[in-house]
Design a protein that fits this description.
alpha/beta, about 280 residues, 10 helices, globular, two-stranded antiparallel ribbon
Amino acid sequence: MNRISDCYTLNNGVSIPCVGFGTYKTVQEKDTSVLRLAIETGYRYFDTASFYGNEAQLGQAIRESRIPRQDFFLASKVWKTEMGYQETKSAFQRSLERLGTSYLDLYLIHWPLPSLSEPNWAELDLETWRAMEDLYQEGKIRAVGLSNFLPHHIEKLLARCRIRPMVDQLEFHPGYSQEAAVQYCQEQGIQVQAWSPIGRTRMFSDSLIRELSQNYQVSPAQICLRYAVQKQIIPLPKSSTKDRMLENQNLFSFTLSQEDMYRLDTMPQTGWSGEHPDRERVYF
């Protein structure tokens, strides 16, 4: 990988860019300026969700760019309150309408449990997945996947699915590398993506990240993003400024040494968001 447009190949043969742009909380009401700037700086893979409330703005920014739709890779997600067979189909159609597109490149189940008190979550996951399998076979989705699913969630799905998941999106960054989940996905041929790949800036004050930033003469964010890239994980950074957007794309001019990768692998838990699919949210 030498640039953000270089691609991995998913387990169904679809190409997916090795770096994407996360859109959670990047849009203020109807303002599309941040999304337009991301497009101008070279991003073509955009990750959104019905829950984010910015699908319409993303669709508008893409149309205003006058760049052909096929040059973009668009991912969205079905939210907890939209799960179920028919509900997922309806939610998917709403996402298409908001984005102004006839298909999605990737569609994900946002969380495995709609609530911690849901006793039949595995069956609900399967019903949701069946809708996505049908949409995939109809050619409306190029790839289907998961978000925040851990191995025990995925096992329930794999036991009964017709089409294997192609992606799992996890919180991943130095200090919260979820090694068991990442290893499981990679062994199953599921491409891992990293949300919050820089720990929502919480990593910037960490002594190891700051040391490596100085040693490699790059920013703390670039250290975190390069760590994901060297793990064969697709980072989904977000930013609102042009300089940071460009900086977050400059990940291929340096390589972290094996020793430094080990040091990052074995950091104490740092920068965790407090979100976990099987637990109440922890507030810091």
